[in-house]
């Protein structure tokens, strides 16, 4: 019951890390509103987590790229929970393309969801957290935002922007006791599996040497429930009250943040 009394919004809750985060928070006793564009899966994730208790979860539709959607969903969630203490924001999309052939459409789509979505959800959450005396915003960056990414140029640029935004938002909102950090994960989720499915045999070999070989703790991507859930509980809890503006790899040692 480490998070008893915490009121939390989780974006991207229909699958992958968002799904695991909803479970971790409900297990820790929090009151959660799970949000996603995928309503069917999002609603069943919330219902299943809630049934297990001891906290609770409900579901609301959200498109993070759309200001009106963010404002109305967050207002409804805050009305339901009576305030907002934590935003966990894993919702994002990934499309492959190199620096030479990335299209305007793919660039704009990834920047709308990954970058504008981070700005909008953070900005709206901040307004509510400020009113309740503070809070914790947990964004999702990537090793892709830290290094050259030949196969995912726009995604890499979008995650680099999430890192910069996280530092700036933390520096700006610390005065209101609102913390902003970013997790840089390496987890076996649908996004990870879909990326692997697009690879040829040669690309899979390259991916092993680029992505898995450097995971010191076992050369495999992590499990979102076992390896990420407890870290997300820590960043939602008051135990992390003096940490802000940081890029936190939860990746078995895959990357170094400097
Ligand atoms: N999987 C990894 O190892 C890895 C590595 C580095 C970074 N990341 C980042 O971690 C986060 C979580 O990744 P994941 O692997 O769980 O992804 P995922 O694709 O499995 O899940 C993403 C969720 O976000 C939702 N979503 C997409 N667009 C949305 C929108 N416009 N509005 C609301 N919801 C939307 C999807 O419906 C989905 O439920 C992402 O930010 C991703 O970029 C993942």
Task: Indicate the topology.
Blueprint: E1 7-10, H1 16-27, E2 31-36, H2 39-52, E3 56-61, H3 67-81, E4 86-89, H4 104-131, E5 135-140, H5 153-173, E6 178-185, H6 190-197, H7 201-212, H8 224-236, E7 247-250
Helix pairs in contact: 1-2, 1-8, 3-4, 4-5
The structure holds nicotinamide-adenine-dinucleotide (NAD).
Can you offer a commentary on this structure?
- The chain has a single domain, classed as Rossmann fold (3-Layer(aba) Sandwich).
- The protein has 8 helices and 7 strands; from the N terminus they run βαβαβαβαβαβαααβ.
- It has helices at 16-27, 39-52, 67-81, 104-131, 153-173, 190-197, 201-212, 224-236; strands spanning 7-10, 31-36, 56-61, 86-89, 135-140, 178-185, 247-250.
- A 7-stranded parallel β-sheet has the order 3-2-1-4-5-6-7, sandwiched between helices.
- β1 (7-10), α1 and β2 (31-36) form a beta-alpha-beta unit.
- The chain is globular.
- The model has no long low-confidence stretch (mean pLDDT 96).
- The structure holds nicotinamide-adenine-dinucleotide.
- Nicotinamide-adenine-dinucleotide binds at residues 11-12, 14-18, 36-38, 62-65, 90-94, 113, 117, 140, 142, 185-187, 189-192, 221.
């Amino acid at each position: 019951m480490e998070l008893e009394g915490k009121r939390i919004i989780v974006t991207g809750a229909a699958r992958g890390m968002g799904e695991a985060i909803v479970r971790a928070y409900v297990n820790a006793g929090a009151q959660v509103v799970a949000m996603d564009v995928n309503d069917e899966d999002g609603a069943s994730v919330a219902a299943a987590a809630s049934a297990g208790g001891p906290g609770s979860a409900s579901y609301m539709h959200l498109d993070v790229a759309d200001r009106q959607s963010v404002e109305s969903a967050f207002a409804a969630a805050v009305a339901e929970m009576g305030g907002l203490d934590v935003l966990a924001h894993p919702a994002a999309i990934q499309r492959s393309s190199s620096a030479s052939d990335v299209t305007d459409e793919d660039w704009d789509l990834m920047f709308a969801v990954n970058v504008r979505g981070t700005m909008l959800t953070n900005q709206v959450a901040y307004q509510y957290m400020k009113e309740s005396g503070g809070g914790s915003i947990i964004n999702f960056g990537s090793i892709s935002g830290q290094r050259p990414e030949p196969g995912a140029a726009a995604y890499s640029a979008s995650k680099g922007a999430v890192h910069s935004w996280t530092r700036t938002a933390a520096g700006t909102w610390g005065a209101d006791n609102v913390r902003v950090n970013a997790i840089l994960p390496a987890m076996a989720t649908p996004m990870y599996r879909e990326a692997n499915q697009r690879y040829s045999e040669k690309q899979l070999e390259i991916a092993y040497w680029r992505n898995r070989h450097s995971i010191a703790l076992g050369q495999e991507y992590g499990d979102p429930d076992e390896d990420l859930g407890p870290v997300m509980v820590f960043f939602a809890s008051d135990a992390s009250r003096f940490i802000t503006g940081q890029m936190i790899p939860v990746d078995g040692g895959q990357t170094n943040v400097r």
